[in-house]
Design goal:
Elements: E1 2-5, E2 17-22, H1 27-36, E3 43-46, E4 52-54, E5 59-65, E6 73-75, E7 81-84, H2 89-98, H3 114-120, E8 123-124, E9 127-128, E10 133-140, E11 145-149, E12 155-156, E13 159-160, E14 166-173, H4 180-197, H5 217-223, E15 230-231, E16 234-236, E17 244-246, H6 252-270, E18 279-281
Parallel strand pairs: 2-5, 3-5, 4-18
Antiparallel strand pairs: 1-2, 6-7, 7-14, 8-9, 10-11, 10-14, 12-13, 15-16, 16-17
Helix pairs in contact: 2-4
Amino acid sequence: MEKEPLARYTSWRVGGIADRLYKPAGIEDAQQYLKSLPAGEPVLWLGLGSNVLIRDGGVRGSVIYTRGCLKQMEQLADGMLKVEAGVPCALVAKLAAEKGLSGAEFLAGIPGTMGGALAMNAGAFGGETWALVSKVVLLNRHGDLIVRDADDFDVGYRSVSLADDEWFVACYLDIPQGGNKESREKIRQLLAKRSQTQPTNVPSGGSVFKNPEGDHAAHLVEITGLKGYRIGGAQVSEKHSNFILNTGHATAKDIERLIEYVKGQVHKNQGVLLETEVRIIGEEKAQ
């Protein structure tokens, strides 16, 4: 699709126009699309559109949209789960529980796809994505498939070493055997906790800031007195201070200005410089 507005593809419901948006039929189709692109064409991969702020000026080049496209997941003969990048993390948690595997329940609390979770080592409720990963499948800018072991990557808190011209398209998860009923109950409890503590019914990008060592970003924002603070249509959530909401008419610029304001105020008042967990990409809107 040419000149496709991206707001409908992001959880913040903001974002300008992409030059091109492509929905691959599967991994092989994505390979062929990459091979067909001009050498200098920028490429952005997008799943559920959480943890990303796309600016009002949009994105040049091609956006490859994986949600509902790279959607295969299965349990292999060795017990591992093979999951493609477009599968929502919550569905992976559900499948693992159905198969009697224990340890993936936290994925139910990650509002994104496996591709995004792999790229940033997403976590929730004390669990992290890469603790489950055995190996991954990647595509590079030339459309080549690459398989690598988890040990080939430098993985940290919300960070994974990955070349700019490579993208995760599938992974193999090694999840221990456990109890089916216990896992289902744990997922239910985690989702109930998420609903109680996070603003799940208003457009947001997920957690905005990384937690600094020894503290929580939400705590620092709250004690700085910024709960409920607004810029334009963007507001710091009163339910969880590490979420910024689109109250209905926010622009990406409103959200970005609020992110920078919160960072500045927390640094000024608490002496801590918060790092954004959200990726801010795209171009400023032309004036």
